[in-house]
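Can't paste images in this forum, so I'm doing it all in text. The chain is below; anyone willing to post the predicted structure tokens underneath?
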Amino acid sequence: MILTVTLNTALDITYRVRELRPYASHRVTSVTERPGGKGLNVARVLAALGHEVTVTGFAGGPAGRAVQDQLTATPGVLDALVPVAGSTRRTIAVVEETAANLTPEATQLNEPGPQVTPAEWSAFQDVYEGLLPSVSVVALCGSLPPGVPGARTPTSSAPHGQPAYPCCSTPAGSRSGAGSRPAPTWSSRTPPNSPNSPAPTSRHRPPGTSADAAHGRWWPHWARTACSR
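Text version of the structure:
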């Protein structure tokens, strides 16, 4: 089982218009909605490739319910999102489809996400820790919603008797982790496929694999590509 973590999930909404003009009214030709956020995008790709995937993070409000309804209908994806009082953000893409554009162009509007309370953050940590024994790989993806303690960093090694988990991280913005729990962390601000990203630490790569080998080969192909989008 693969676990993807998306703390700032989103409902991706796409509006298609014939031509986008500032300060004008537009008639939308079509509307599509789907679960969004880097970790949910990764989960959808992995499920399409035949992998079993669990998704966790936060979901709340009407947008959060729409995200969870679609996840429930996605074969191979198990919903373990944690409820919050605030509303899951919406990301709105306005796609222009003029005859002059061979490739449609999009204007993107991204909401910040819900305000996460300390109690909701603690509930997420409990769910996250409870999922770890059943997974083989963890992907930590995307940006952080307001209220998540980004300055908090976990311990660098797992306590005695606790397993280590292969982990890939593709954060956007602030760093975060799972408090002091024995879990993988947002260890870098750069995507795994970036030449500037550091090699995984010893607890984040298979035993006997050197840092260079882990950096160059151990990151799964899907992590080096899909996670950074």
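The longest strand covers residues 10-17. Strands lie at 2-6, 10-17, 30-36, 53-59, 77-79, 82-83, 89-96, 105-110, 137-142, 167-171.
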